[in-house]
Amino acid sequence: MNILLINKFHYAKGGAERYYLDISRLLREAGHQVGHLSMAHPRNVPATEADAFVEEVDYHKSMGGLGKLKAASRVLYNRESVRRVRELVRARRPHVAHHQNIYHQISLSVVRELARCDVPMVMTLHDYKPVCPAYLLMVGGEICERCRKGRFYHAAMNTCILNSRPASILGSLEAYLHTLWGTYDQIALYLCPSRFLVDKVGEMSQRPIKLRHLPNFLPTDDFKPVYEGDPVVVYAGRLSREKGLPTLIEAARRQNVGRGWKLRILGEGPLRAELEAKVTEWGLEDGIRFEGFCSGEDLKEVIQSASVVVVPSEWYENQPYAILEAFALGKPVIGSSIGGIPELVRADRTGWTFPPGDADGLGMAMREALDHPEQTREMGREARRLVEKDHNPALHMERLLNIYEEVSS
Hints:
Elements (H helix, E strand, L loop, with lengths): L1 E5 L8 H15 L3 E7 L12 E3 L10 H12 L2 H14 L3 E4 L9 H8 L4 E4 L13 E2 L2 E2 L9 H5 L7 H17 L7 E4 L2 H10 L6 E3 L18 E5 L8 H10 L7 E5 L5 H10 L6 E3 L5 H10 L2 E4 L9 H8 L4 E4 L4 H4 L6 E4 L4 H13 L1 H18 L2 H16 L1
Parallel strand pairs: 1-2, 1-4, 2-3, 4-5, 5-8, 8-9, 10-11, 10-13, 11-12, 13-14, 14-15
Antiparallel strand pairs: 6-7
Protein name: Glycosyltransferase family 4 protein
Pfam families: Glyco_trans_4_4, Glycos_transf_1
Organism: Eiseniibacteriota bacterium
């Protein structure tokens, strides 16, 4: 088949990009033709003649009045993206287009252009953007579902996007316009890594859209499981409030971190300084270490040497790669019972769950994992088996190609 993959970043920036690049590699290895539409950037992976790129747009950088106006207009309609996708369709005639994270920088305008060109489309949902202008269904550190059934004005009223009134107004306007234009209706099928996302987007959508569960995959051959581990708990991810870091620090304090066990926190984010100050205030420096961003083989080695991984999120997580990677490395996970996390972290099988924001519940789970190493090791083996069975590349490719055939026939 000839497939066009579209995502605004063409390098490994986050989970959406990881999936986009991994799928591209698997499709090519299977003999399919693959083209990409993305943004130009110095960190982009090598391109081919089948790829096209538009000018980079960074909404986090400060811009003058005209720059802001130009950037805002691109959110609603990106002329360059439309021109590029039209050129790709004429040159390559793809059988199907597969969207990932295209909002704002590439813009939903490419969906309308592909529909005009009669190219069938699917989209993998990595967040809740079709029903939430701010992506996360969260505002002010709390779960928010006010925009359900198309009430997008709440995003502007609550300043949900970048803590900016103009950005939030623009996000609301974007949602209303694409609802009016029927943009989301032109995508044949939405692929959801978690069943939770299927249910939540379905119940919040103003119009019925076709959603299907398709779990993420992991090339387990790249992950060597190590079932033994030191009395160490690892958190790896963004240091932001929705990830539940304050709850994790409090839970570690209540369980006397530093006395027989340690907590290693890997990652960067806006909450780091606040968290480090709290650890210093409580005198927990010997037990809690902030080690900054870590990836690749270095991250694998840290997880392999630990007993358990913790994912204490307080927002509707979809299907975190942090959990799949921990499982592939032979480690069970302590995860909050929110979003898609409980679909992977199955109590007494692949880990422990606790109510989001419950420091006592989290602390008790960490203590259980550390005090019963044989049970923890057996859970790690079960976690590895789950990834091998349900999240392997071959199974995912079979399902995805069947979907491509379905929508393009």
